[in-house]
Write a structure and sequence with these properties.
Number of helices of chain B: 3
Organism (chain A): Bacillus badius
Protein name (chain A): DUF3445 domain-containing protein
Pfam families (chain A): HODM_asu-like
Order of helices and strands of chain A: EHHEHEEEHEEHHHEHHEEHHH
Order of helices and strands of chain B: EHEHEHEEEEEE
CATH topology of the largest domain in chain B: Rossmann fold
Largest interface: A-B, 19 and 19 residues
Shape of chain B: elongated
Number of domains of chain B: 2
Number of strands of chain B: 9
Protein name (chain B): Dimethylamine monooxygenase subunit DmmA-like C-terminal domain-containing protein
Oligomer: heterodimer
Pfam family, one (chain B): DmmA-like_C
Number of strands of chain A: 10
Strand content of chain A: 15-25%
Number of domains of chain A: 1
CATH superfamily of the largest domain in chain B: Nucleotide-binding domain of ferredoxin-NADP reductase (FNR) module
Number of helices of chain A: 12
Distance between the termini of chain A: 31 Å
Strand order of the largest sheet of chain A: 1-8-9-10-6-7-2
CATH architecture of the largest domain in chain B: 3-Layer(aba) Sandwich
Bound molecules: protoporphyrin IX containing FE, zinc ion
């Protein structure tokens, strides 16, 4: 299992403190010009890619789904990812174009992909699946039709409670059916956020951070609920530091200029609770937020069986640091 | 289309009894023998006003070719009423959405039991289930709790796997 080792690159999820703890809201924010490009290579890059590719190889039906009519959008996605990677990391990625004959090189892994742009038969995988395997993010393509968004392509290895296989073809509203999606003041959020997404324009993506806790487990999806469900009970206030990980999903919502679809990109990062000692202010903020999570949210997020133990662990940890 | 509506037990098109939508220009009524009496009654009750309707009775088995010709020949503004047992209704519903009818333009009245299906999250197989919150997958035997969410693509309710103790 990988964890974030360079904490300067870790996306700490809680920005609020004490009197304003975490609740669901329309927390989409704009990005400054230097941050619109989501590409991020961390020390974990190679481990993540290895893991991602293993999952795609072992469970293709679980991890990748697409409709056959999406090829044009898939090529738009290929072009977008190549452009973004080269813009941010010209030392790591490059492309050569000879007419429609493209050669993309990933210098970190020492790999090249050669294909005819726009011609699926020049690749052994679907274009979206091929290029997605060079980046450690999860990628969901939501097609905009009739004021809603429909999931038409998905490559997922790390996001929690997400199943490309189950969610394929669903609207934004259907996908969020299971979420107790109400604000602190009781406002129903699904439609409000769907409408907000309609206003996102090309070149001006939005971002938000989702978070969860997981108990000694990487994959938290519906497919494996029978396994991780019971495992959650083994967490105690003593072992929570090692077993329980803060699981952070940094998310981007990008409007694709040609297809008008919204590309949903996730960067999933893990930090064991014990590593919070490295940043005492994070430790304290995490403690205050977790101690105030309402039951309905803990239930939905799947952390109800081990949240109290985790909070107790953090409290003990804070006290022991004060003593020192 | 991959995300065409499908008929399932919670479909918003399902009504207790036939009631004509007055805003529509034409009413196409497709029914089987079980519903014949009720359909006649509904039409008589409505006879004062002029109702532009076309009835189509399903004999023992549906003649698909006739059904398709009928559905594709409808003009804009036609409201479809399906009054039949589940299997007939499911066939007519699927053909109608294929022919371009949306859920807003369909009313369904089911005679007899409705069918329910579950999508197994272990083996991705859709199978029919009877009542109850917990079932076993017909293909892989996994135990599943029947979830409240339905997929039009998978044509079933989500089955959350669990290991019985
Ligand atoms: C447009 C692309 C999006 C996709 C494909 C997507 C997908 C998902 C999925 C699959 C889940 C898990 C649902 C389940 O339990 O079955 C989820 C949960 C959630 N989504 Fe989205 N989502 C999108 C956009 C958004 C946006 C824009 C927001 C908020 C501003 C949002 C907020 C949430 C929240 C709060 C949860 C609950 C997560 C938790 O508490 O751990 N989503 N989403
Ligand atoms: Zn099964």
């Amino acid at each position: 299992m990988f964890k974030s080792t360079n904490l300067d690159l870790f996306t700490f999820p809680f920005t609020n403190f004490k009197n304003k703890t975490y609740r669901y809201s329309n927390d989409l924010v704009a990005l400054s010009e230097d941050k619109v490009n989501f590409m991020k290579i961390t020390p974990e890059y190679k481990v993540q890619i290895k893991r991602k590719r293993e999952m795609l190889e072992e469970q293709p039906e679980v991890r990748y789904q697409s409709f056959p009519h999406t090829m044009e959008m898939q090529w738009e996605f290929v072009e977008l990812l190549i452009d973004l990677s080269i813009n941010k990391y010209p030392e790591h990625f490059s492309v050569e174009k000879d007419g429609d004959q493209w050669t993309f090189t990933n210098h970190i892994l020492g790999e090249t992909e050669t294909f005819i742009f726009g011609d699926e038969s020049s690749l052994s995988l679907e274009p979206y699946d091929m290029i997605g395997r060079h980046f450690h993010n999860d990628f969901m393509l939501m097609v905009n039709r009739d004021d809603n968004f429909y999931l038409e392509v998905a490559q997922e290895s790390f996001a929690a409670l997400f199943s490309p296989n189950w969610n394929l073809g669903m609207s934004f509203n259907e996908i969020h059916g299971p979420v107790p999606f109400v604000s602190r003041d009781g406002v129903e959020l699904t439609d409000r956020i769907r409408k907000f997404l309609l206003t996102i324009e090309p070149g001006a993506p939005r971002t938000r951070v989702n978070w969860n806790l997981m108990a000694d487990r990487w994959d938290v999806n519906y497919e494996t609920m029978d396994i991780w469900g019971p495992e959650r009970d083994k967490v105690t206030a003593e072992n929570a530091g090692k077993l329980v990980h803060l699981r952070v999903e940094e998310q981007w919502f990008i409007r694709m200029p040609r297809s008008n679809a919204i590309l949903f990109v996730l960067d999933t990062q893990f930090l064991p609770l014990e590593d919070l000692v490295l940043r005492p202010e994070w430790l304290e903020t995490t403690y205050f937020n977790l101690a105030d999570i309402p039951d309905y949210m803990a239930e939905y997020k799947g952390m109800a069986p081990f949240l109290p133990q985790s909070v107790e662990y953090l409290e003990n940890l804070m006290n022991s640091m004060k003593v020192k | 289309m991959y995300n065409s509506p499908v008929l399932y037990d919670q479909s918003e098109t399902i009504k207790e009894k036939l009631s004509f939508n007055d805003k529509r220009k034409k009413h196409l009524i497709i029914y089987d023998q079980k519903a014949a009496g009720d359909v006649k009654q509904a039409l008589t009750a409505h006879s004062q006003e002029e109702l532009n309707y076309e009835p189509f009775e399903i004999e023992d088995a549906i003649k698909l070719q006739d059904l398709r010709t009928l559905l594709y020949s409808q003009k804009m503004g036609t409201h479809l009423y399906i009054a039949s047992n589940w299997d007939h209704a499911a066939t007519v519903f699927a053909e109608a959405t294929e022919a371009g009818f949306t859920e807003d333009e369909i009313q369904t009245v089911i005679y007899g039991p409705k069918r329910r299906y579950i999508y197994c999250m272990k083996c991705y197989h859709t199978s029919e289930i009877s009542d109850g919150d917990e079932v076993q997958c017909a293909r892989c035997d996994a135990y599943m709790e029947v979830g409240p969410f339905f997929s039009k693509v998978r044509k079933g309710y989500i089955g959350y796997p669990f290991i019985p103790n």
